[in-house]
Amino acid sequence: MQRRQLLKAVAGAGLGLACAPMINRGRYSLFAGSNAEYSSRAIELVGRSVVIDMLSPFKLGSTTWFTNPDSFKQTDFQRFKDSSINAFHIAVGTGGPEAYVNTLRFIASWNSFLANHDRWLMRVDSADDLDRLKSSGKVGVILGVQNSEHFRNPADVEYFHSLGQRVSQLTYNTRNLIGNGSTERRDDGISDFGAAIIERMNKVGMAVDVSHCGDRTTLDAFEISKKPVLITHSNCRALVPGHPRCKTDEAIKKMAASGGVMGITGVRMFVKNDEPTTIEHFLDHFDHVKKLVGVEHLGVGSDIDLDGYDDMPAEENKRLRAGYKGSYGFRDKIDIEGIDHPKRMFDLTEGLIRRKYTDREIELVLGGNFKRMLAQIWSV
């Protein structure tokens, strides 16, 4: 790639840099204060792709951004822009007796935040919005929730859809009226009420997500839904035996048969049961899904913000860990070095290049598959 082409790709990636200094052998340093170098091929692939992270909260831990939207500055936005992630699915877990009110507050605070920063951010409601992201120069936000306990009845599905929610995970880790979570004591399936909720989600064009669902609930969702079902952020249990948050090969096959897409996470204990756990083990999950059902069903659901869990304040990290059962298997670190930072999509792309993925396959993984599938699910 010529230097002029490289600079054009950098601009397309949204890095906002005046130049990309050439290092050696077609490798470039893109980020101030970092010695990381990326190949011209990786830079070009990220630059021309619509990059979608199907689980990446804007900020783990406490922030004033939503209570005081003006505290979100140009420098904050630039970090998201420079990541070259075009669309963030920002879902969090809700639930409990106040699930309806708390989820309403969550959606309302996001709508207020987005309206306050509409020169930088765009709420993604449709496939057309995904198509416009690159040319708009904005960062897209997909509103979703990692639980459906706020749906008191099928009519609530339509109401929250009208507020902008486009993805809903059926359960978090515990049981609700719809079905079972992945760490619940018993593995039951989807209830009649849950079937009615899925039917209404299909009708209005809201994506069904089963990332945290128990095994039986996961399989039931593929049978009940008339539209493709997503696994926005999970990993392969064949590579992490016994971990409840990972999906069985049976579930991955059913997901693909439904037409769905699975986003792979970089959460350390979902990637490997023991140490060492590296980016290469993370890439093994991409390879496993590709070999099992095809690259057309692969995507990214990082399950971290730009910086990762291990950068959270110690007390907040401790409280987060305390909210999960021992079956989660927390270790000293939650993140994996090399993919725990804002430029992780470049490192993932380099890894897929090492694994001999073609340019087309990499573009599908970076966002093409989720973009295609969301367009199909959201259509009414």
Percent helix, as a range, is 40-55%
Question: Helical region count?
Answer: 14
- In total, how many domains does the architecture comprise? 2
**What is the approximate shape?**
globular
How far from one another are the termini? 43 Å
CATH architecture of the largest domain: Alpha-Beta Barrel
Count of β-strands: 13
Radius of gyration: 20 Å
Low-confidence regions: 17-24
Please report the first level of CATH classification, the CATH class of the largest domain: Alpha Beta
The main pleated sheet reads as: 7 strands, parallel
Report the sheet-strand fraction.
5-15%
Structural class, please? Answer: alpha/beta
Q: Identify the CATH homologous superfamily of the largest domain.
A: Metal-dependent hydrolases
H-E string: HEEHEHEHEHEEHEHEHEEHEHHEHHH
CATH topology of the largest domain: TIM Barrel
- Mean pLDDT over the residues: 93
Break the fold down into its secondary structure elements and pairings.
Blueprint: H1 3-12, E1 27-28, E2 38-39, H2 40-48, E3 52-53, H3 74-82, E4 87-89, H4 99-116, E5 121-123, H5 127-136, E6 139-142, E7 144-145, H6 154-162, E8 167-169, H7 192-204, E9 207-209, H8 215-224, E10 229-236, E11 246-247, H9 249-258, E12 262-264, H10 268-271, H11 279-293, E13 298-300, H12 314-322, H13 344-354, H14 359-378
Parallel strand pairs: 3-4, 4-6, 5-6, 7-8, 8-9, 9-10, 10-11, 10-12, 12-13
Antiparallel strand pairs: 1-2
Helix pairs in contact: 1-2, 2-13, 6-7, 8-9
